[in-house]
Design goal:
Elements lengths: L27 H15 L9 H12 L4 H11 L3 H8 L13 E6 L2 H19 L12 E6 L11 E3 L2 E3 L4 H12 L16 H8 L16 H29 L1
Parallel strand pairs: 1-2
Antiparallel strand pairs: 1-3, 3-4
Helix pairs in contact: 1-2, 2-3, 2-7, 3-4, 5-6
The protein binds FE2/S2 (inorganic) cluster.
Family: Belongs to the complex I 24 kDa subunit family.
GO molecular function: 2 iron, 2 sulfur cluster binding; metal ion binding; NADH dehydrogenase activity
Pfam families: 2Fe-2S_thioredx (PF01257)
Length: 252
C-alpha cells in the first residue's frame, strides 16, 4: 500500500481563520443601569474578580445568553481580559452561549435519570416540540436541553425549567408541562412555592437580586431527601457507637 502524496502548500485548500466581530456596546441607558447594578454586586466581595459569576448572570438577564457584549462588559467592570471572562463563561453550563427561550427546559440524562426514563423524556419532548436538544421553539418559548446530574437523583427522572425542579417526570407529564408553558399558563415547580418566572428574570435572581415572588423561598425538602438524611444520621451514630466500644475494649 502506498501513502497518498501530500499536496504542495499552494495546492491545498486555504485554511480561513474566522475572526469574531468586535462586540457592540450596550445602548447608553442599558449600560448605565447595568454599571450601577454591577457596582452593587462587586461591592459584596473583597476582590472584584470574585464577582464574575453573578455578573455573568446579570448580563445573561439582559439578552438571555452571554454575548460578546456581555463578556466585554464583565471584563471592563472587573479589570479582567475578555479571554479570562470567556474561559469562565464557557466552563459553566448555566451560562448559555446561544439565544434562549423564555423557558429553558433541561432534561437530566445522566446515569440514574437516564435509566429511570430521562432519555425517553428528552426524545418525547424533542418529538413533541419538533426541535432537537439545544434548539428553541420558533415562538421563542422553550429551549430544550439535556442536563448533567443535578443532585436530584432521589427524584429521578427530573426535568428543570429555569433551574426549578420538576420531579419524577414521565414523557406524558413532561409534554403536559411543555404545553402549559407554551400556552402561557402559571406553572409551579415541584419543590417551589412560587410560579416560574422567565429565564431572564431567573438570571437576575441568580445574579443576587431579591426574588420578590411571594412564597419563592418557602420550598421544603421532599420525603426521599429526608429519608436519605435520616439514614446518613443513623449510620453516623452506629459508626460512633462502634468506635466508642472499640476504644473501651482497648482501654481494658
Ligand atoms: S442523575 Fe439526574 S439528578 Fe442525578
Amino acid at each position: 500500500m502506498t501513502a497518498e502524496p501530500i499536496p504542495a502548500a499552494a495546492e491545498r485548500d486555504p485554511i480561513l481563520l474566522q475572526l469574531s466581530k468586535r462586540p457592540v456596546p450596550y445602548p447608553p441607558q442599558v449600560q448605565q443601569s447595568l454599571r450601577e447594578e454591577a457596582r452593587l454586586i462587586i461591592d459584596r466581595y473583597p476582590q472584584p474578580r470574585s464577582a464574575l459569576l453573578p455578573l455573568l448572570h446579570l448580563v445573561q438577564s439582559v439578552e438571555g445568553y452571554v454575548t460578546g457584549t456581555g463578556i466585554a462588559f464583565c471584563a471592563e467592570q472587573l479589570g479582567l481580559t475578555d479571554a479570562e471572562v470567556t474561559a469562565v463563561a464557557t466552563f459553566y453550563s448555566m451560562y448559555r452561549r446561544t439565544p434562549t427561550g423564555d423557558y429553558h427546559v433541561g432534561v437530566c440524562t445522566n446515569t440514574l435519570c437516564a435509566v429511570m426514563g430521562g432519555d425517553e423524556i428528552l426524545a418525547a419532548l424533542a418529538r413533541h416540540l419538533e426541535i432537537a436538544a439545544g434548539e428553541t421553539t420558533p415562538d421563542g418559548t422553550i429551549t430544550l436541553d439535556h442536563l448533567e446530574c443535578n443532585a436530584a437523583c432521589d427524584y429521578a427522572p427530573v426535568v428543570m425549567v429555569n433551574w426549578e425542579f420538576f420531579d419524577n417526570q414521565t414523557p406524558e407529564s413532561a409534554r403536559r408541562l411543555a404545553d402549559a408553558l407554551r400556552a402561557g399558563l402559571e406553572v409551579t415547580g415541584t419543590r417551589s412555592g412560587a410560579p416560574l418566572c422567565t429565564f431572564r428574570e431567573t438570571a437576575r435572581i441568580l445574579a443576587g437580586f431579591p426574588d420578590r415572588r411571594p412564597e419563592a423561598n418557602d420550598g421544603r425538602p421532599g420525603e426521599p431527601t429526608l429519608a436519605g438524611l435520616r439514614a446518613t444520621g443513623e449510620q453516623a451514630e452506629s459508626v460512633t457507637a462502634q468506635q466508642d466500644s472499640s476504644s473501651e475494649q482497648g482501654d481494658r
